[in-house]
Design a protein that fits this description.
By secondary structure, the chain is α+β, with helices and mostly antiparallel strands. Helices cover 28% and strands 32% of the residues. Bound molecules: uridine-5'-diphosphate.
């Protein structure tokens, strides 16, 4: 097979030209970065797990009519996606205080927030992804008010759905980051969920012990990173235990 043309290389993924116009191939690497790429490392097997976890979550979201860029998984590290125009905003949803909000506002990590909070960050590595308000987003034209209505609406639905899905397998969804894109199809534009949803961009705590099962294990040198990602996949019922045909559904916890 001819080698695919590489279009973009990010910190954890590479995008290649897809087999048909309007499609791309998203390749998941084992590379990990934190603190705006000041800390770098490799987590063996991370790409394979994130590819599978993101496939599972995006498919579940599509089932409740959340539009996504995901088409299908191609192999262990690659998935076929629809080409979208990425909106340069990271949308963060928080249910429990952790990470930057805990630091910035002096809220002890683990405090349940009075309600889910949505924040926006401007995607710009040179500036260190600064936090911005909706005012900046619409004033600078990164997205217009109707786009923002769709983004907030989708984000809150995704949060409700994923909170329940993870709770069912004994995991607390503390916070996570989403990215959205514009999909142009038949002379119409739709806002769709893009990028990935995985332990790289979620905070996932064991519901009973509050043990961290996400990238904070890498950020804070807690060890057992791959094991934690694997445990997330296992609880979701998507870790092949006796070969890839043997994938069960989610495992309900008492
Ligand atoms: N996050 C992300 N990419 C970023 C920044 C944050 O995926 O560039 C995720 C992070 O994994 C966490 C949530 O967004 O689940 C909130 O992150 P926070 O603002 O606390 O940032 P931190 O300082 O921990 O990176």
């Amino acid at each position: 097979m001819a080698r695919r043309r590489q279009l973009y290389e990010g910190k954890a993924k590479i995008l290649f030209e897809g087999p048909e116009p309007g499609t791309l191939v998203q390749y998941f690497k084992d590379d990990a970065t934190a603190f705006n790429a000041q800390k770098k490392g490799t987590i063996t097997g991370k790409g394979v797990l994130n590819n599978r976890i993101s496939e599972f979550l995006m498919t579940k979201l599509a089932e409740i009519n959340v539009p996504t860029h995901f088409i299908r998984r191609l192999n262990m590290r690659e998935q076929l996606i629809k080409e979208v125009e990425i909106i340069p905003i990271e949308v963060v949803v928080r249910n429990i205080a952790a990470g930057s909000i805990a630091q910035r506002l002096g809220i002890p990590e683990g405090t349940r927030l009075p309600r889910s909070i949505v924040e926006y960050y401007y995607k710009n590595d040179q500036l260190g992804d600064p936090m911005v308000a909706e005012e900046h987003i619409t004033a600078f034209g990164w997205a217009n008010p109707p786009d923002m209505d769709d983004i907030v609406h989708l984000t809150l639905r995704i949060n409700d759905f994923l909170t329940g899905l993870f709770l069912g397998v004994g995991i607390t969804l503390v916070d996570f980051k989403l990215e959205f894109g514009r999909l142009f199809e038949n002379d119409e534009m739709r806002i769709v969920l893009a990028d990935e949803i995985s332990p790289d961009n979620c905070r996932l705590w064991d519901s009973k012990t509050n043990e961290k099962m996400d990238k904070d294990r890498f950020r804070r040198d807690l060890g057992k990173i791959e094991e934690a990602y694997q445990e997330v996949a296992r609880r979701l019922g998507i870790l092949p235990e006796a070969g890839s045909r043997d994938m069960k559904g989610p495992e309900t916890m008492q």
